[in-house]
Specification:
The protein has 96 residues and is an alpha+beta fold. It has two helices and six strands.
């Protein structure tokens, strides 16, 4: 591993710290003219805080197999920001 890789890790840690506590991953991707930023958080309470902090106004509950999770998103001006909470088992509303 060279210095460029180390610098990238320092920058990535700085971005996680800037978003705030309770964020365990931050990913970006770009397709055509759209940039997507995905923020994964460790609790539904932190998801609500992130949604308010970043003005994410479209909230939903998603299901993947037996697990479900909450997410909040907004899109505009070539940017999509999605914040995703932790996965829960059972029926929606009975998790944390």
């Amino acid at each position: 591993m060279n210095q460029r890789a180390i610098d990238l890790s320092v920058m990535a840690r700085g971005q996680l710290a800037w978003v705030g506590p309770g964020v365990h991953s931050l990913t970006t991707s770009e397709l055509l003219s759209w940039m997507t930023i995905r923020i994964a958080v460790n609790s539904d309470a932190r998801l609500r805080e992130i949604a308010e902090d970043f003005g994410l106004t479209q909230a939903s509950t998603e299901r993947r197999g037996r697990a479900w999770f909450r997410q909040a998103m907004s899109r505009g001006d070539g940017l999509i920001v999605v914040a995703v909470g932790p996965h829960h088992e059972g029926e929606p509303g009975h998790g944390s």
